[in-house]
Automatic annotation (TrEMBL):
<dbReference type="GO" id="GO:0005777">
    <property type="term" value="C:peroxisome"/>
</dbReference>
<protein>
    <recommendedName>
        <fullName>(S)-2-hydroxy-acid oxidase</fullName>
        <ecNumber>1.1.3.15</ecNumber>
    </recommendedName>
</protein>
<feature type="domain" description="FMN hydroxy acid dehydrogenase">
    <location>
        <begin position="1"/>
        <end position="100"/>
    </location>
</feature>
<keyword id="KW-0576">Peroxisome</keyword>
<dbReference type="InterPro" id="IPR013785">
    <property type="entry name" value="Aldolase_TIM"/>
</dbReference>
<dbReference type="GO" id="GO:0003973">
    <property type="term" value="F:(S)-2-hydroxy-acid oxidase activity"/>
</dbReference>
<dbReference type="InterPro" id="IPR037396">
    <property type="entry name" value="FMN_HAD"/>
</dbReference>
<dbReference type="Pfam" id="PF01070">
    <property type="entry name" value="FMN_dh"/>
</dbReference>
<dbReference type="InterPro" id="IPR000262">
    <property type="entry name" value="FMN-dep_DH"/>
</dbReference>
<dbReference type="InterPro" id="IPR008259">
    <property type="entry name" value="FMN_hydac_DH_AS"/>
</dbReference>
<keyword id="KW-0560">Oxidoreductase</keyword>
Amino acid sequence: ANDSGLASYVAGQIDRTLSWKDVKWLQTITTMPILVKGVITAEDTRLAIQAGAAGIIVSNHGARQLDYVPATIMALEEVVKAAQGRVPVFLDGGVRRGTD
C-alpha cells in the first residue's frame, strides 16, 4: 500500500527539513509579511505566531486524495481561538472534505 503512486507523489511533495526556524529566516530576507499556510491545529497556530507569522491560512493543501484530512471549516474555530486576535486568520479550501 505504501508503494502506491499516490503515496510516492505525496512523499515527494513534503520537505521534511522545514521547521519554524524557516519562518524566522524568511523575515530576515524580506520586509513582506509572512503568512503560514497549512495550519489546522491550535498547536501549529501558536507555533506559527511564536515564529513571527503575520497571518495564518487554514488549509489542508487541497487534500483531494486524502479524504481523512480535516475539512478546513472544521479546523477554523480551533485556529481562530488559538490565534486570540493576534494575527489575521484566512480560510482556504472546501468546507466539507478534501473533495469539495
